[in-house]
Amino acid sequence: xxxxxxxxxxxxxxxxxxxxxxxxxxxxxxxxxxxxxxxxxxxxxxxxxxxxxxxxxxxxxxxxxxxxxxxxxxxxxxxxxxxxxxxxxxxxxxxxxxxxxxxxxxxxxxxxxxxxxxxxxxxxxxxxxxxxxxxxxxxxxxxxxxxxxxxxxxxxxxxxxxxxxxxxxxxxxxxxxxxxxxxxxxxxxxxxxxxxxxxxxxxxx
Length: 205
Prior knowledge:
By secondary structure, the chain is mainly alpha-helical. Helices cover 64% and strands 0% of the residues.
């Protein structure tokens, strides 16, 4: 029987296979042929949805970025009485989500969103969204009486994100003489301490 030319959810299947192979073998060592072979389809079928392997990689990273944006947006849509508490939750949960995504295998491509200047430039909209989300929560914190008006600035939002950027990939501990790679329990502990110092320090005196 001839293979049907139309495969339901073909693009989605290709991305799923690419995620698995990129994570297992690395982006450079995975070819279009490998992805096609993994799915049991012809190489030409992949080119119906993606022009290049880079296009597949960008889609994989875009999924990661959209997941983080959705997490932040859900929190923004349900801010409680303390916008600062919501800000702390967003940052802490984002840190945990990224760790779970990028450490499932050493080659996981999602880490590139946080470590590659090329990817940061290509996904500038993601970082703008994140900065605006932090600024929006700071402005809500002013209205709630949690912080002084001068603390709700874009500069403050950037400072918060710069400070917490050390809690994202690459996960290297440069500040102790023993362990060099940060494990999740240690990372989450450091995240809680960092966010407590950072967010609590914003509160109006």
